[in-house]
Amino acid sequence: MGENTKIEWCSHTFNPWIGCQKVSPGCDHCYAEKQNAFRKWNGGTWGPHAPRKRTSDATWLGPRKWARRASGRRPRVFCASLADVFDNKAPDDARGDLFNLIRDTHELDWLLLTKRPENIARMLPDDWRTGWQNVWLGTTCENQHYFDHRWPILRSVPAFARFISYEPALGAIRLGDARPDWVMCGGESGAGDRTRYMDPEWARSMRDQCAAARIPFFMKQMTRKWPIPDDLFVRQFPSRSA
Fold this sequence. Notes:
CATH topology: TIM Barrel
Radius of gyration: 17 Å
Number of strands: 9
CATH architecture: Alpha-Beta Barrel
Structural class: alpha/beta
Number of helices: 6
Strand content: 15-25%
């Protein structure tokens, strides 16, 4: 699961478990919920009372294999595309096992993206200290309200690097004096007639703010995966010295 990911900003995806619930408007047309309803990974249900099902032992072996193959490169692993690492309903022991796996695979850069930054500090391992060198902490900010709420919480957590996923972009965002190490931007896709439109000017504004602050900017996709305008096709990655 996830070795040959189609997500352009990572090398692999890894899901320690499957299952989640909606916490903000960015979740309204959740692709993971839709896929789970079809594939029934955890029985097909979603939400606060749905099971969070741990993935197979074979899936858990994947990151160790990627680490052995790294050969001086630093593959980026998005964890978790079908769950949330900082969900308070994670399966027993799974989060601890995940951090043990991350600790053991120092050849990989792990990108932990959450809509629950308020849970991060109390769920980190005891030896986290100022952050692990192979972990980037990120939070989703779909509009100004959630940026203003989530970024200050994420900023307060010690980390090697912190990033913002501005996807699905549902409104303009002003960074102000915020300085994330990376910003990814994307419009909503896959919701058919319900797909919410991302004004390209929101993306252009974010691109320009990032350029002015020397923050790497990655334009992932437009609404419904329409072609990215030439001036918006910017795909930058943070350096390892973030």
